[in-house]
From TrEMBL:
This is PTS fructose transporter subunit IIC. GO terms for biological process: phosphoenolpyruvate-dependent sugar phosphotransferase system. GO terms for molecular function: carbohydrate:proton symporter activity; protein-N(PI)-phosphohistidine-sugar phosphotransferase activity; protein-phosphocysteine-sugar phosphotransferase activity. It comes from Leptotrichia mesophila. It is a multi-pass membrane protein. Keywords: Cell membrane, Membrane, Phosphotransferase system, Sugar transport, Transmembrane, Transmembrane helix, Transport. GO terms for cellular component: plasma membrane.
């Protein structure tokens, strides 16, 4: 096997390992949030939960989502370099998923994946250092975690995060200049941005853009965005039900959770599927979300709250087109997945 093929195989294995350890957290977070938010009422600041028990359940769901990305990063690194890589990668995954540095940059699951890989290979390099026997016993529990976290963390904060922050600022400024232009193009862009990293910085850029326009009483871009957030998880969930030979039992179980998350506008429900099969899943959900966003813009759908999915239907202007846009965009993604994904081997399935 060539070095390139071995590298790709190792990375695929690492991603699959990261996803398998992340899945329980996604399921717990998604199900608890879905139940709690379904009892809330739409307000200007999102879904308001008034029942104390449901608030507590919501907090448990939020906690599940909070550790989802660190788990992904940690076990990607663990797959590559073993136990010494686990804690540093989880710390760095947490950093990637939260605002950091002077620019308060957040890179989400894409940043966590990159840091997980970097941690794994950096730790493997550290393990090759020639050190005295007395120091070697301290390497996995003291020296490697500290050195890895410090070097990669500071590299991320001072080198990687800064240009990403500048890029995001430029993107928001560029999007604002497009307001008033082609509704189709703007809807396509908002929809695609919503799905491309599923709750990450590009998604949040679309959110910031639509919230800024809401402050000016312009609600159609928010309508397109809130349509698009539901499409990736709904598409993945429905795809697992329709094309059962293309998914593992684990995927099928996760698909049910993804449907619940889609109904309440939690795009992150599609992340595990994208991590496992990015080349086929990402194009499908980006295209479907772009179609949904464009349909919403063309038909002047307005979402009056900063939340998404069918759960906000009572506070949507243009309810019929809001639901049709979600349905059509979802079906587009499901159709693309049907033709792009291959059947699994019987043993895998």
């Amino acid at each position: 096997m060539s070095k390139d093929n071995r590298l790709l195989k190792d990375l695929q294995k690492a991603f699959n390992t990261g996803v398998s350890y992340m899945l329980p957290s996604v399921v717990v977070g998604g199900v608890f949030l879905a139940i709690a938010l379904s009892t809330g009422k739409p307000t200007d600041t999102g879904m308001e939960i008034t029942n104390q028990f449901m608030k507590n359940l919501n907090d448990l769901g939020v906690a599940g989502f909070a550790i989802m990305i660190p788990l992904l990063s940690g076990f990607i690194a663990n797959s590559i370099a073993g136990k010494p890589a686990l804690a540093p990668a989880m710390i760095l995954g947490y950093i990637a998923n939260n605002p950091i540095g002077a620019g308060q940059v957040k890179t989400g699951f894409l940043g966590a994946m990159i840091l997980g890989i970097a941690t794994g290979y950096f730790v493997n390099w550290c393990k090759k250092w020639k050190v005295p026997a007395t120091i070697r016993t301290l390497m996995p529990i003291l020296i490697i975690p500290i050195v890895t976290t410090f070097i990669l963390g500071m590299t991320y904060i001072y080198i990687i995060a800064v240009p990403i922050g500048l890029f995001m600022n430029w993107l928001i400024a560029s999007l604002k200049t497009m307001q008033g232009g082609s509704a189709i193009i703007l809807g396509l862009i908002i929809g695609a941005m919503t799905a491309v990293d599923m709750g990450g910085p590009i998604n949040k850029t679309a959110t910031a853009f639509t919230l800024a326009l809401m402050a000016e009483n312009i609600y159609t871009p928010n309508g397109a965005h809130r349509i698009a957030v539901a499409i990736p998880p709904l598409a993945m969930g429905i795809s697992t039900l329709i094309d059962r030979k293309k998914y593992t039992k684990e995927d099928k179980d996760l698909g049910i959770s993804a449907i619940f998350m889609g109904l309440i506008g939690i795009t992150e429900g599609a992340i595990p599927f994208a991590v496992k099969d990015m080349k086929k899943v990402l194009p499908a959900i980006i295209i479907g979300s772009a179609v949904g966003g464009a349909i919403g813009m063309i038909n002047n759908v307005e979402a009056l709250v900063p939340h998404g999915g069918p759960v906000i239907l009572p506070v949507v202007r243009g309810k019929l087109w809001f639901m049709l846009a979600i349905i059509i965009g979802t079906l587009v993604s499901v159709a693309i997945l049907h033709f792009m994904k291959s059947d699994l081997d019987e043993e895998t399935n």
